Amino acid sequence: MLAALSGATAATTLSPVVVSVTRDARSADRSTIPISVLTRADIEQAPAGQIQSLLATLPGISHSRAGGLGGQLVMRGMNSNDPRMVLVLDGDRFRGRNTLEYNLLDPSGIERIEVIRGPASALYGADAMNGVVNVITRRARGDASRDGFTLIPRLASLAYASAENLRAGRAELEGVGNGIDLLLGLGIRHAGDFRSPAGPIANSDFRTAEFTARAGYAPDAQQRWELSARLARVEAGRPGGIGGAPGLPWSEVRESPIRENHFRIGYQHHQAVPWADRIELSLYRRSLDTARTGTTRRAGNDRYARNHSFVIGPVVWGGKLLVGTPWTQGRSHWGMDFYHEAREGSELASWRGHGHAPPTSSTPRTRISRAASQLNAGLFFHHDQPLFSAHQLSLGARYDWIRTRTGSTPAPDEDARTRAAFAGRTAASDRALTASGGLILQPLSSLQLVGNLATAFRAPATFEKFGASRVGTRITEPNPALAPERSITAEAGLRLRWPTLQGNLTAFDSRYRQLIALADSGPQVRQRQNIARAGMRGLELDGIWQIQTPLSLRFNASRARGARHDTGQPLPHVPPLNGLLSLRHQSAGYSLEARLKWSLAKRRIDPARETRSAGYGIVSLYGGLELARVHPALKPFRLVLGIENLADKRYAHPATVADLRYPASPSNPLLEPGRSLVLNLVGTP
Questions:
Q1: Cβ distance 105 to 123 under 8 Å?
Q2: CA dist 626 to 46, 633, 640, Å?
Q3: Whole-prediction pTM value?
Q4: Tens digits of per-residue pLDDT, 587-604?
Q5: How many helices (H) and strands (E) does the chain have?
Q6: Which positions of the chain have pLDDT values less than 70?
Q7: Across 523-612, where does the E strand assignment appear?
Q8: Model pLDDT, residue 480
Q9: What secondary structure letter does DSSP report for 67?
Q10: Can you tell me the distance from the alpha carbon of 330 to that of 326, in angstroms, rounded to the nearest whole number?
Q11: CA-based radius of gyration for the chain
Q12: pLDDT of residue 271
């Protein structure tokens, strides 16, 4: 893609953008796979409390909201609640709690986000069936090679949004010199219950705090060592969506709190040896502290069950080795990576009663699931070979080995049915060989024809295979017999590169085998099971038209359609045709933008799990001003002012999950925020 095509608000430029999500820095236009980028300018445009809303401005990506902070991404029709896309932080897997991972990332500490849309198992291994999100955090800017080391404190951002009374800020301490670059950051986000056009959504508030440190040392121009650390704390309510539906007054779910510790060491060497112009090493450790979730559910006869769930861990170790090898013609990159995830299991305390009276029975805090671990090690190779003049062939392959284990000692709360399921099935080994092939044909200097064929897989996660949980009166059982998913995807597209009109169109067709889905296995009992065959196909479009020097029109649209092949039943919560249209005027010192987010009505549904939804068109307005135009003393700052959902339209995203056992309400399915005044004061280096 191009920088101008990467997001709805990127700066007006038609130059190619270099990305690293392909595991080797390159122009996105020379990659056969579809890539989108959110730049720092995109992130600063609106003070989003969550990065999910920012990512939903890209083609083929939707946001399945679960609260003011929480929610999952839907990429090519598949929800990230099931790990079919990989989240990467500064080139390494950001793995641990796929339902909550995005909540832990503060947009103010992010420099850019690169996204692969489509399968990438030949690069990243397990789970990269539908895409990869590579989040690149901020680091110190300036000339680190100069003599003398200086430290400069600065205000990075202050943000406000009226719909949720969001108040957010980030302060930084930056230092460069003597070969050292250092950036310390502290970001805080506080928000109350957000207001929808139907009124406030109770239990949608959140509070987060994030401390980050990123320090580098370059002894010479070819080498760089880096140490980084993240400490984060999140408290948030889930008023609806996955894990929160149907919301109050029937249920109340909160994470209070989640704590994260993340440490990483990395090394890069350019022009290391004649056969490798790039070597990169990294090792990281990440742990999530106990997450405590309180739930109250009310059913017939005004009965309630209140649970406190303590999710212990996981602790994840991981790392990688990447090598880039240039040839007389073409280029290869290859390497290995691994992660080891250990979960101590979950504990639960519960109370039951009627009405608002004190509980009539209780169960003390008890272990409800066994400890489990998973080790994944993979080797990969990728090669790009020029053909004739501007054509290119890309080939990749990867071998993965996964070992998943659980304890042989039953949890105290296990029933006879669960113990029988574990009999002789406390460990499993999975192996996978994945491959990809892509071709770029360039019959004209302004036209590329692109094709890809790729296989992908995902091994069942520890919580899917061996995990057990209870939400209210509903139990999720383990399934040690769960088999890995596999898929094959064909893509075809074209890229148009005229001086004033540039665009990308991609068609894809994915075929899945042994798709893992959550299914009812009895009254109030669920279990993850394999579906024999399923498919997803769709179209993605994005582009920019430079109408005249200061005025540009950006657009994207996508559509996906999925079904089980054994029954013909539609896959649930797949968004209908939707997209984004943005008209932007960019001049020296200021910018103006009108944005339309739209979706057609959703009529093709799985009636057992979702309802039809109406189409919508949401208009938002933004303006940016370099404050140096107001006063020279304000030169380091830029102000962004906007009004989102200008008409205060009531709508819920079609991908948002509802609980059909309860009546429809503003939290079931969860409505999106109403009209909101947004402000963002951004400090520039």
A1: no
A2: 15, 12, 9
A3: 0.93
A4: 888 999 999 999 999 999
A5: 5, 40
A6: 1-16, 47-48, 290-301, 468-474, 521-523, 685
A7: 525-548, 551-564, 578-587, 590-599
A8: 85
A9: S
A10: 7
A11: 25
A12: 84
